[in-house]
Amino acid sequence: MKFSSAIAALAATGSLVSALIPIEVKGSRFVRPAIDANDEGDEFTVIGIDYQPGGSASYSDSSGTDVLSDGDVCLRDAFVLQQLGVNTIRVYTINPWINHDECMSIFNAVGIYVILDVNSPLAGESLSRTDPGSSYNKGYLNRVFGVIDAFKGYPNLLGFFSGNEVVNDAASAAVVPKYIRAVQRDMKQYIAKHANRTIPVGYSAADDDVLREAMWMYLQCGDDESKSDFYGLNSYQWCTGDNWQTSGYNTLESTFDGTSIPVFLSEYGCNKVSPRTFPEVYQGIYGPLNQVFSGGLVYEYSQETSNYGLVNIQDDGSIKLLTDFDNLQKAYNKISLNQTSAGQIKAVTPATCNANSLEKVSSSFETTMDLPGCPAKSMLTNGGGNNNVGKIVKVTNTTSKYKIYNSSGKQIVDTSIEIDKDNEVNSPSGNNINTQSASPSSASSSTSTHKSKGSAVNVNASGFLAGLAAFLAMLI
C-alpha cells in the first residue's frame, strides 16, 4: 500500500500518539489528505474561531506564558470548542521560546487545527506600516523563524499568517506590499530548509473593499516562492438584518471568483446588533459563498473590551457561555458542506502579475515585484537557533479544573473532552450544550460530536519510526 506524503511527514516527527493529518493546498482549496495515497483525500473547509483570551494587547514576552502554554486553560476551552463544532482556531500572538506541547496536543486530540500569526504587537516583532524597510531586519526575522521552529513539529498546525492588516490605508499600500512578499519568501524558504513538511503561508487582509482586492491580486500572482498559499479577509459586512445582497456577500463571491489560492474569512461576525444571530453562517459563508470561499473564523472566543465574545472568562478561570455562543452553535448546526474529493478539485494556474490591473483597483497600491533581499541570510540557511521544537504528546488529563456554566448560569456537569481513538476532525454535532447541565446522565448522552472519518492517523510506532519515514519516502 502507498502512503501519502503527509503520513511520511507524521512518521518523521517520531510522535508516539495519534495525530491529525497536515492540511495541504490544491488549487483554490484546502485538502485533507488520505492515509493511502491511492485515495484522493477530501476538501477541507475552515469552521473556526479567532482565539486570543485576554487579547493580543495583554501579551508580554517576559511573562513566560501565552494563550497556548497552560494545559488546564486549553482543556477548558477545548471542551467548549469541541462542543461548538469548530475544526480550526486562529491564534494571534504566542511566545516562540516557551513550550506549547500540552495545549497543541489537546487541540489535536479534539480534532482542531491551528492557524498562527508569526507577529506580535510588541516593538520590533512586526512590520511597520509606515517604515517597513527599517522593521524588516534580522531581529524581526529571528522572531518569525523562532515561531516556525516552535510550531513546525505539530501536524495540526494548518499554516502561518505572515501579517495581519499591515496594509490598511493608501499610505501603507504604497510601501508595504513588497515586504509582505519578502517575508513570505523568507518563511517558505526557511520551512523548506528546516521543516519536514510543507506548511502553508498566507496573509490576513483589512476590512477594506478596495485594498483587500488589490492585496489579493498582488499576493496570489506570480512565482510560488513569495506568493501567498492562502488569503484571509477580515470582514464584518454582514450584520443582523442583512441578507446576501445587502451585506455585499454577492460582491465578495464575484470579486474572488476565479481565485488561484484558498480564500476564507479570517475574521467575521458583525456586532452592531447584540446578541448576534449569525445568519451569515448558513445563508452565506457555508451557503452560496462556499462555492468560492473555504469557510471562515468567527471573531472571537472570549469577551474583551470590543464586545465580540462567545464566552465570558471570570477572574477565577471559570467561564460562562454567552447567548452569542448558543446562537452560533445553532447556526453551525444548520450548515451542510459538500463532500468534495481532492480529485474533483482542479489545479488553477496562478494569475500573471499585472501592474495595470492592480492600478485600476487601487491607484495608490505598490505594484513592484522587485523584492528586498533577506537581511538574515545566515539564519535562513543555518537555522534561527530556537531549540524549542514542539511535538505532539499523549493527553492523559481530559478534564480542566475550571468550572463551565451555560448561558443560563447552570454549571455543566461533565466537561471532559472526548478523545477519538483515530483523532478525527471535529465538526458541528447538532447538539445543544445547554442540555448538558441537567444531570450527569444527560451530559454523558449529549457530549458526542460528529467527526469526519478518514481524516486522521494513529501514529503509534516507536523504535522504527525513523526508518519508516525513509521507507515511506521511497514509496511516494
What does this structure look like?
By secondary structure, this protein is an alpha/beta fold. Helix content is 29%, strand content 15%. The protein contains 15 helices and 18 strands. An eight-stranded parallel beta barrel has the order 5-6-7-8-9-10-11-12. It has a three-stranded antiparallel β-sheet with strand order 2-3-4, with no helix packed on it. A hairpin with a 5-residue loop joins strand 13 and strand 14. The chain is globular and about 60 Å long.
Structure keywords:
476 residues, alpha/beta, 8-stranded parallel barrel, 18 strands, disordered C terminus
Task: Please state the CA-atom Rg, rounded to the nearest Å.
Answer: 21 Å
Secondary-structure-derived class: alpha/beta
**Beta-strand fraction estimate:** 15-25%
Which bin fits the share of residues in helices? 25-40%
Principal-axis shape equals globular
